[in-house]
Amino acid sequence: MLFWLTELSDGGDFFNLFRYITFRAGGAFLTALLFGFLFGPPLINVLRRTQGKGQPIRSDGPEGHFAKAGTPTMGGLLIVGALLTSTLLWARLDNPFVWMVLFVTMGYAAIGFADDYAKVSKQNTAGVSGRVRLGLGFLIAGIAGYWAAQYHPEPLAGHLAFPVFKDTLLYLGFLFVPFAMIVIVGAANAVNLTDGLDGLAIMPVMIATSTLGVIAYAVGRVDFTEYLDVHYVPGTGEILIFAAGVVGGGLGFLWYNAPPAAVFMGDTGSLALGGALGAIAVATKHELVLAIVGGLFVVEALSVIVQVLYFKRTGKRVFLMAPIHHHYEKKGWAEPQIVIRFWIISLILAIIGLATLKVR
Prior knowledge:
Elements: H1 21-51, H2 76-90, H3 96-122, H4 130-151, E1 159-161, E2 169-171, H5 176-194, H6 202-219, H7 222-228, H8 239-257, H9 266-284, H10 287-293, H11 295-314, H12 324-330, H13 335-355
């Protein structure tokens, strides 16, 4: 929205700053952070009053979680509100990729909100039917995948790009949209599974989003893509502003989500942020890099899949409890120990993923 101020510029004044994505990304970060600090306390108070007993605690979960009974959920509203406000304020609103990522984020936030509301109102952990959640999630992802394909440049449209191998493209054709659907839905549910401890999901999300934001900025600049020898996707640079909003809003949320959490993210936040990661990866043609950058989320999701399949086949468990962060809780690791170590792993994976821009 503020990009229109460039019309007042003569090329050498303050208004000229609004032409620069990096300047507007900084503004988006500060806007989202301020939003989180200003609206965090009143939102938490409203959630406490309206939710009563707060988020239901699983009866078969780690014993330490029962002490968290009464903590309100739907804190993801704070993050979504912050990133939406900052993106609309600072991004170019004529950019199709910005609207595509926002569409996925808000759509998955709505699904998560409905699920959180069902859990709180019924005071059980069932929530919305899994089939309904997946059905709506695939619908949103399908629209987003088709949307992105329409704005990818001709040499890349319908193709899967590979990291490291600069000239390798796999033509998917009409299968690109189903592939994009799997990426977005998979990312959303992987982040959702990771959100099980105070602060566990939000920091890796911020790290992954920051990394993908830098990648989006790089592949959206023809001079950077020529230097790095990566595929040029015009228009994706504006996604950096959205990513900055996620980081600012995430830090504002983490202030209240740090142990002991005053509020939980809930599915409202985890599905929205996971969907956003998938959408950015699809927009920038870095779907495979997302598996590296978001490797922690992949491991969390795989731990659940392995646990379920192995138990159905043998009646035994691979892990003491899935997702895998609960396995370490059961082994006696303290919650902050798990959270901080998982943060470190996320940072290492992000650096590896970022390195794929240069390693060719």
